[in-house]
Amino acid sequence: MLFKKMLRDMKENKMQFIAIFLMSFITLLAFAGIGSEVQGLQDNLESYYNETNMANAYAFGNDFNESVIKDFQDMESTTGIESQFVVKSIADLDNNPRVTLHFLEKNNISRYYPVKGGNIDFNDEEGIWLDARFAEVKNLTVGDNITLEFNGVTLTKTIRGLGYSPDYVYETPENGLISDFKYQGFGYLSYKAYPNSYMPHNKLLMTTNYSTQEYYNLTREMLEDKGYDDIINGASFMPREDSGSDKQIQDEIKQHIILAVMFPIIFVIVALLILLTTMTRIVNHQRTQIGTLKAIGFENKPLIIHYLSYGFYLTLIGSVLGIIIGHNTIPYIFIGTMQSYYTLPCWDPGFNMNFILVALLIVFGSLICSYIAVKNIINEPPSTTLKPKPPKVNKTGLIENTKIWNKLSFNLKWNIRDVKRNKLRTTITLLGVIGCTVILISAFGMNDGVNDLKTWRFDDIEHYETQLILQDNVSQSQIDSIIKEVNGTPIMTKSIQIIANGDKKTQTLTVHEETLLITPTDKNRIEITLPEEGVSISQKTAELFGLKVGDEIKWHLYGNETWINSTVDAIYGNPSTQGITLTLKGAEKNSIPFEPTEIITKEKVTNKLDGVGSINNHHDMTNSWDKFTQTANLLIIILGIFAVILAVVVIYSLGLLGFTEVERDMATLKVLGFQLNDLRKLFITQYFAITLIGFIIGIPTGYYVLDSIRSNSENLYYPTDYSLSTIAISFAITIISSVIVNFLLSNKLKNIDMVEALKKERE
Q1: Is 598 helix (H, G, I), strand (E, B) or coil?
Q2: Distance CA 557, CA 562 (A)
Q3: Do residues 608 and 468 make contact, with C-beta atoms less than 8 angstroms apart?
Q4: Tell me, what's the pLDDT at 424?
Q5: Which of 622, 468, 462 minimizes the C-alpha distance to 96?
Q6: CA–CA dist 583, 536 (Å, integer)
Q7: Residue 199 φ/ψ, nearest 5 degrees
Q8: Which residue from 101, 156, 654, 688 lies 20 to 30 Å from 216 (Cα-Cα)?
Q9: Using CA atoms, how far apart are residues 746 and 675, in angstroms rounded to an integer?
């Protein structure tokens, strides 16, 4: 009997219950969908690291002899160590791509992962095991030959295998802003393939069970105790988390986690509040039925269970379907774009018990909301419950006691009083609109940020046509020749570590003379002049460390463990390169040798110059930025769809609920002579006003949401801001959704059954 009653009630209030189901479904669809993508990325990355015994730390130097390597190995904190010789070479292929070569005697740490062909043969003098993604772009396969040049030496090797490396999950770009395998790749070779009899060892890979900071301290103590001053001053230590590859993918994971958690919260809150509103109305409407059931012998317990089951079944089914469909669909939407940036052997979605936990929280929340709605009536005796509920007595509000009230139109007076009578429904509708606005503002604000960074970097700061990346072994005479031939400006970029306010991070040092090809700007994109001998830091660096002008920092170049104490003399804005910028005089003052790594020029250079490794033109760099924005654009589309669904479901379901609550009033007004258009205007005014207020509140709320997303990237900086077009587009989507839904609802005014409506009790 009670089950049939539940089905009948659901049929009579189907839109409200559909809304509850949809909110539960969309919540878990978004949370489990994006969460599965993030969890899969984490699981696949961790599995890949474990399978290949990924290094925990690296040391870089000119040459680590066997004695130093043995001393590292003998440390209790070292569980494994290997040495390599790593050098960048130029391949004799289109675009003169850079191939980073690794000559090694063994490969038990950060192991090469074969995809095609065999594993590395350390007795093979003629073979090379090549980056599979680079080979794919260059149409190379096992058995082909490839010619490479480095340090004046030319090698021609036969490709024995194609594969991946855990050190190259993300390949630091050689051209543009993101990895482009037309211009870069890596290769592994046996030490026997090295062209000279003696092979130096300039890179150490180490594994440890200690934290990287503890391990760094222990290794430094060991080097000091052994008297390796030349190693301390000439080498650098890098933990895995500071490597370009791991740092980039971990930043990506952090941003996706925020999106997976933040937006479903809005749907959870709205779903439970809709349920509370709906169940409160149903229970109040059925108080005489409840009294009758109690009078004929039904106990309180089965009646409570009956009303609790409404939300229980809907949220349970919606949550389960959301998990299943989200887990099996949304991760695959992102995979294609993610694969263009990152290299993993497996891209399976992951599963997290938090998906089930959130589903249980929604179901448990539905039980609480249903119980809140039913508890007071259930506890009343049958004699009280059988009586109609006394109508609400509206107290005179503040505005009604002013002269303004008499000047208001009937439309405004009626809607103000209706809002007062139905505060919960109004609040939920307002929250739904705010949530829709926050999602839209965040999505389009991200798009604004990405586009602003492009114009900021390539129009406001950089004014050169060509960037010439120099070879590692380039001589000063070659640099001078290139500068003269292309009328260029030399620039040095080096990796550095900065310590400030108890935090340590890897950043970039940029050194160049004052030039018209680079215009420094502040965070508002206004042109500034950097101090000639001072230390300037980027705005993002200042935010990460909590710094301001006048604060003290310590920093050092990788490859030189001598720490430099500096005062922050200026803060500038840069969208893509974070760290410290010095002039040539500033570098000289801090005893930093100026060793150019690139040359920029206004001229369009296409021919290969002696000493130049690769050439990046303006078109290539802007194209790489456009490719970089693909994930953001995909995310914008998904968030926009969720936002529209949220707005439509909330406004329609609660609007329909509001319509049933005022149906008797509308019928009364029709009897009094109000025309259909008058009633339509009366009905639409309230929801349009709520939508407008919700949108206004959602704009600053979206700002803070966008700021939390932005702050999780350590490499990119863009001010948290959005354009007028973003506000206009978000407004148009929100308002149009509201107008369409309210127009559909207002059409129901034509079909009011006057007799039945006037028989209804006032809610």
Answers
A1: strand
A2: 8
A3: no
A4: 73
A5: 468
A6: 9
A7: -105, 120
A8: 101
A9: 13
Instruction: Give CA–CA dist 316/21, Å, rounded.
Output: 9
- The SS3 call for residue 742 is helix
Pick the closest to residue 576 from 618, 628, 652, 644 (CA basis): 628
Q: What is the spatial distance between Cα 39 and Cα 88, in angstroms, rounded to a whole number?
A: 34
Cα distances from 730 to residues 322, 468, 495, 738, in angstroms, run: 26, 42, 41, 12
Both tokens of 480, joined, read 């001078």
Q: Mean pLDDT of residues grouped by 10 in the chain (763 residues)? A: 64 70 83 89 95 93 88 92 92 87 95 94 94 94 93 91 95 67 91 91 93 86 81 78 86 78 71 73 73 76 81 88 92 84 92 90 85 78 68 63 77 80 77 80 77 83 89 85 92 90 87 92 90 92 92 85 89 90 92 91 86 79 72 72 73 67 71 76 79 87 76 71 79 80 71 58 50
Show the tokens assigned to 170: 């993300």
Q: What's the pLDDT score for residue 73?
A: 92
pLDDT of 711 reads 66
CA distance 327 to 391: 48
In the prediction, which pLDDT does 542 show? 93
* Rounded Cα gap, residues 687 and 698, in angstroms: 16
Helix (H) or strand (E) holding 261: helix 244-285
143: region left, alpha or beta (phi > 0 left; psi from -120 to 50 alpha): left
Residues 444 and 729 sit within 8 Å (Cβ to Cβ): yes
State the residue for tokens 């009646």: 303
198 CB contacts (<8 Å, ≥6 apart)?
Answer: none
pLDDT value at position 287? 72
Residue 344: which of 354, 334, 352 has the closest Cα? 334
pLDDT value at residue 324: 94
Structure token digits, residue 373: 């709605």
> What's the rounded Cα separation, in Å, for the pair 418 and 591?
75
Sign of the four-CA dihedral 426, 12, 414, 649: positive
- Helix, strand, or coil (residue 549): coil
Report how far apart, in Å, the C-alpha atoms of 467 and of each of 92, 263, 479, 496, 642 are.
20, 41, 13, 22, 42
Residue type, 354: N
Q: Are 428 and 725 in contact (CB under 8 A)?
A: no
Q: For strand 184-190 and strand 466-470, is the pairing parallel, antiparallel, or unpaired?
A: unpaired
